[in-house]
Amino acid sequence: MDEDAFVKIYGVAIKYSTCHGSIPTITQFPNIVPPSTGAYRLAGPQAWTSGFFAGLLWQWYSWSLDHPQLVPSTELETLARTWTIPLAVSAQKSSHDVGFLINNTFGADYELTGNEAALPTLIAAAENLLGRFSDRTGFTRSWDRMGPYQDPNKTFLVIIDNMMNLELLFHVSKITGKQEFAEAAINHARNVAQKQIRPDGSVWHLLVCDPHSDQILERTTWQGISDESTWSRGQAWGIYGFAAAYRWTGITLFQEKSIEMAEYFLSRLPKDGIPPWDFDAPEPAVKDTSAATIAASGMLYLISTARPDQPALRKYLLGAKELIHSTLAYARSKPSSFTEKNGHLQIHDLGFESILMHATPNLSQRPPEQIFDVGVVYADYYLIEALQRLERFCGGG
Fold it and tell me: Where does the sequence pass through the membrane (predicted)?
């Protein structure tokens, strides 16, 4: 956890705030940093990535409570909330992405500060996601439509990414005491474990389900190189998502699946320790540093749930540390230029605006746009989360 990472996050927050009088307003959110400009390409509040930057600010606020920063905690809290409030419109987004958008932001605000004003948006997002759960399929619908699957009455689409949004349901179930939120999340996770994870621990990205039964019509991919390949970020989502599901429920199946998926991920890493965008992509393969940081944070989440009789899980601490160290050595961006005097932080040059470079949002032939070798806000989010978790385990060493 170093000053430069903080300076980049703080500097981006200030740079992209639009002031009307004395009140800053946020209308666009950091998303992708192309190497040609080194500056964030912004996205609207309903883009699936738009909650991660406010989430980064909440992470820094939390960290600042015990680790003095260049900017006071009170200012970080205000800044994080400033970036959070405009996301309220996304609570009703017609997608599973409401977890990424709302739990990382309004959920963080409520947990860290006790701000009850965050609760209505948090609960509304969970109710929206619960409304996407189907008793017939046993899943929560991910996308309404995608590619050739344009009729929701004929296909029910489930992607592995959706495991990451279950925490919103578990979180709101705990807050409200309403078990239907947790029950939907448990049913979804059980069905993913049984129907979306291959026997070797790898994952299909996309399940195409019959919306009127529990039948799987197709196991395919939207973002992998082929239907039978393993998209590395999808594998990382699974590691993390099942670790989270185990943490909230104690259901052994979920811990077992997280372990299986972590074993597969580590076994497929190349010698340089940086995951390719798809584990089955031909060499030399384009890398995805976001897969590395998500997997590392997921493995640290996994071992945080280990019982005293499970010392073998400590191996994932080493795996996570190696992923983080390799990724930072490979992809850390040029430091910012700044000075600090009498408690005043002055940033002279942000440089490349994300902490990490060399992520791959999309490289499959199926999405309309191929984007690779860029900085992405979610790679930074899970990097900072992983570093904080690592600090709690072993002082960051």
Answer: none
First CA to last CA across the chain, in angstroms? 11
For residues 27 and 104, what is the distance between their CA atoms, to the nearest angstrom?
A: 18
| The pLDDT of residue 257 | 98
**Residue keyed to tokens 């997280």:** 258
In this predicted structure, what is the pLDDT of residue 346?
A: 84
CA angle 194, 304, 52 (to 5 degrees): 80
Place of tokens 């170093």: 2
Structure confidence at residue 303 (pLDDT): 93
The sign of the torsion formed by the CA atoms of 112, 114, 120, 126 equals positive
Note the pLDDT of residue 21.
54
- What is the tens place of the pLDDT at every residue in 364-397? 988 888 999 999 999 999 999 999 999 988 764 4
Domains of the chain by range and CATH?
3-394 (1.50.10.10)
Model pLDDT, residue 368: 82
Those residues whose C-beta lies under 8 Å from the C-beta of residue 189, and which sit 6 or more positions away, are: 163, 166, 241, 242, 245, 251, 254
- Angle at the Cα of 165 from the Cα atoms of 157 and 13, rounded to 5 degrees: 120
Rounded-to-integer distance, Cα 214 and Cα 72, Å: 52
30: its two tokens = 């950091």
* Beta carbons of 111 and 130 less than 8 angstroms apart: no
Take residue 156 and report the two structure tokens written for it.
């029910």
- CA-CA distance, 63 to 59, in Å (whole number)? 6
Would you state the pLDDT for residue 17?
87
Q: Residue 38 region, left (φ>0) first, then alpha (ψ -120 to 50), else beta?
A: left
Contacts of residue 39, Cβ cutoff 8 Å, sequence gap at least 6: 33, 353
pTM of the model: 0.96
Identify the pLDDT of residue 20: 55
The parts of the chain modelled with pLDDT lower than 50 are: 396-397
Give DSSP secondary structure letters for 362-373.
Answer: B-SSSSSS-B-S
Q: Dihedral of the CA atoms 217, 219, 221, 227 (nearest 10)?
A: -130
Residues 6+ apart with CB under 8 A from 247: 301, 304, 305
From the number of C-beta atoms within 10 Å of its C-beta (0-12, 13-18, 19+), residue 94 rates as: middle
